[in-house]
TrEMBL record:
Its cofactor is FAD. One of its GO terms (biological process) is photoreactive repair. Keywords: DNA damage, DNA repair, DNA-binding, FAD, Flavoprotein, Lyase. Residues 27-160 form the Photolyase/cryptochrome alpha/beta domain. Its EC number is 4.1.99.3. It comes from Camellia sinensis (Tea plant). It comes from the Eukaryota. Involved in repair of UV radiation-induced DNA damage. Catalyzes the light-dependent monomerization (300-600 nm) of cyclobutylpyrimidine dimers (CPDs), which are formed between adjacent bases on the same DNA strand upon exposure to ultraviolet radiation. Required for plant survival in the presence of UV-B light. Not involved in the repair of (6-4) photoproducts. One of its GO terms (molecular function) is DNA binding. This is Deoxyribodipyrimidine photo-lyase. InterPro entries: Crypto/Photolyase_FAD-like_sf, Crypto/Photolyase_N_sf, DNA_photolyase_2, DNA_photolyase_2_CS, DNA_photolyase_N, Photolyase_Class-2, Rossmann-like_a/b/a_fold. It catalyses: cyclobutadipyrimidine (in DNA) = 2 pyrimidine residues (in DNA). Belongs to the DNA photolyase class-2 family.
Amino acid sequence: MAYPSSVQSGRVRVLKEGSRPSDREMGPVVYWMFRDQRLRDNWALIHAVDQANKASVPVAVGFNLFDEFLGAKARQLGFMLRGLQQLHRDIQDTLHIPFFLFQGEAIETIPTFLEECGASLLVTDFSPLREVQSWKDEICKRVSDSVSIHEVDAHNVVPVWVASEKLEYSAKTLRGKINKLLPEYLIDFPKMGPPIKKWAATNCFVDWENLITEVVRKGAEVPELEWCEPGENAAMEVLMGSKSGFLTKRLKNYSTDRNNPLKPKALSGLSPYLHFGQISAQRCAIEARNVRKLCPQAVDAFLEELIVRRELADNFCFYQPQYDSLQGAWEWARKTLLVHAPDKREHIYTREQLEKAQTADPLWNASQLEMVYGGKMHGFMRMYWAKKILEWTSGPEDALAISIYLNDKYEIDGRDPNGYVGCMWSICGVHDQGWQERPVFGKIRYMNYAGCKRKFDVDGYIAYVKRLVGEIKKRKAETLLNEKKKELRI
C-alpha cells in the first residue's frame, strides 16, 4: 500500500491488511489513541487524516479508558484525563474531528465501535508493552476481514523497528544506528488541517467533570500532584516557556547539575508529558537542536537522554517480552544474582516497610518519600533506591517486583519502558557490564551511601525532602479543613 509522503513508510507497520469487496465503498478511518495523547506533532493522527483524505472518508479519534491500568491511581489517571479533556475540546474545535471515549476492555470496545461505524481502517499508537501488544493481536482477530490495521510509532524519533531489528546490548550498540537515521527521521512536522470529509453529526459528549471526580476518588490512595499541570499547552510551556522553560531558561545548567538530586530544576521536567504523549519527543529534539549553538554540551547531553536512552528502553521492551523479570536479564547477570541470592543481608525489609520508608538508611527513606509525596524521584536517586532494594530483600526476583510495584504506583511517569529498564539496569545489570564481585550484588554495579556523599550534599537532600513532605502535608491539611468548613456552611 502506498502512503502519503507526509508520513515516512518506515514509521507505519501494517498489522492487518483488510480485503475490501469491490462492490463496497470505503468506510471511515478510526484512530485509536492511547500512548500519544496530543493533537500537535502526532504522526499517528497525521497518518489517520492522510488515509481518510486519500479515500475521501471521515476520521474519528477513540480513546479507551482502562480501570487502573497497571496500578495507576489518581496521580496518573487524573493527570491523563485532565489532559484528554483539553485534547477533546481542541481536536473538535480546530480539526472538527470527533473524540469518542470508551470504558471497558479495548479488545471489546474497539472492535464494537469499528463495526458500528463501518470503519475500513484502524490506526493505532505503538507501545512495546506486553499488554498493549496482546490487545492488538486480539483486535486483529476480532475485527472484520475488511478492516486494515496500521500501527504508527509516533512516540520515538526513529521508529523502534527501523532503529534496530534486534535486542540491543547497550546504548553504545544502538547510538550509532540511531544517529545514522536522524537526518531522515528528525524532521519538521507537516501542517495539518481538518479532514476533507466530515464525520456525520453525532453525540460525542463526555462528562469529564464527573468522570475525573470518580477516578480521583477511587485512586485517592495516591493523590494528584500540584507541581505539574497537565495538557499539551502546559507541556510546551515547560519546554519553551518564557518564565521557566527548559530550553529558554534552564538549559545551561543541565550538563553540570542534572545528576545532583538537590537541583531538580536542572532537569527538563518533561517526563510526565513524554510518558502520556502530551508532547512529542521529536518536537523537543527539534527545538533543542535549534538552540544547540548556545549550549552545545547541554543540548548533546539532553538529546542523548531524550533520544538514545529513551529509545533504548523501547528497544528492550519490544524485543525482550520478559522486560520486567529476572528472565529478561543477560545470562551473566542472572547467573551472578542467583549465585548470590542466598547471601546474608544486613537488613531484610518487607514491601510494606519499604513503601512507608521505614529503613535504617535516612537517604533511602528520603528518596522513597520524595517519590510518594512528590511523584517524581530524581534520576540519580532512582538508581541508589533500586540497588538498595536488591540489598534489603530476600532475592533479585523479590527486589525487582517490589521496585516495579513502587515505581508504577507512585511515579507520575510509571508503567513506562524507562521505568522497567531503570529497575532492570539497577537490579539486573541490563545495558551495563559486569563489575567486581561482591556479596549479594555479585557482579552487578554497586552503589552505597558513602559514594552518594562524595557526589552531592546528602544531608541537604534529606532536609530538602523533609521540607517538601512538610509543605505537602500542610497544604493537604488546609484543604481538608476548608472542605469541612464548606460542609458546615451548607
